Amino acid sequence: MSHQPPLPLSSAPHPTATTRRDFMMLTAAGLTGIGVGAAAWPFINSMNPAADVLALSSIEVDLSPIQVGQTIKVKWRGVPVFIRNRTKEDITIAKAVPLSELRDPETDSQRTKAGHEQWLVMIGVCTHLGCIPLAGAGDFGGADHGGWFCPCHGSQYDTAGRIRKGPAPKNLVVPNYSFLSDNRIKIG
Ligand code: FES
C-alpha cells in the first residue's frame, strides 16, 4: 500500500478556493458588462435627436413681409421650401386647369389651405432628380405654365406647383404645415 504524502498547504485545494475564483470571474464579467454598458450609452444616446435637431424639425415662418406675387425660400430639415404669395391671376389659372390635363392630378384646393388659398407652400425639390426649380419661371424662358422651371432637364410646374411638362413624374411636394395665425405658419 503506497503512502501518499500530504500536499503542501500552499498547493492544497482550499475549501473556498473555487468559490473565490468564481467570485473573481463573476466580478470581472460584471465589470465587463459595465464596460459594455458604458460604451453603449454614448451610442444609444447618439441615436436620440439632439435638441437643436428637434427644434429644426419644425419651423415657424412670418408671412407678413412676403408681397403679393413674391416667392421666398426657407430651409427646413435641410431642404428648400418655397412659399409664394400668389396673385389672383395665379389662383384663377390654377383653378381653371381640368384634372384630366394633369399628370399627377390634384386640385388647387388640395394643395392649399382653406381660407388661405393665396399661400402656396411646397418643398422646392424637383420630383425628377432633385434639382431646385426656379421660381418666376416665365423669366427664364421655356416655361408655359407660369410657375416653376427646373433648369436641369426642363420640367415645368404650374402656379399650384403641379407638374405640367418635362420628365418629372410628380407635383412639387406640399409639406405638412398649419396656420398659427393669418400671417404665421408652422412647417413640420
Ligand atoms: S431634376 Fe428637374 S427636370 Fe430633372
Q: Which sequence of SSEs, written as H and E, runs from N to C?
A: HHEEEHEEEEEE
Q: Please report the first level of CATH classification, the CATH class of the largest domain.
A: Mainly Beta
Rg is 33 Å
In the CATH scheme, what's the topology name of the largest domain?
Answer: Rieske Iron-sulfur Protein
Biggest pleated sheet: 3 strands, antiparallel
Secondary-structure content class: alpha+beta
Q: Percent of residues in beta strands? A: 15-25%
Number of domains: 2
- Determine the mean pLDDT: 78
Report, as a whole number of angstroms, the end-to-end distance.
Answer: 92 Å
The spatial strand order of the largest sheet comes to 1-9-8
Shape: globular
Q: Please give the number of β-strands.
A: 9
The unique ligands bound to this protein are:
FE2/S2 (inorganic) cluster
Report the helical percentage: 10-25%
Are there runs of 5+ residues with pLDDT below 50, and where?
1-47
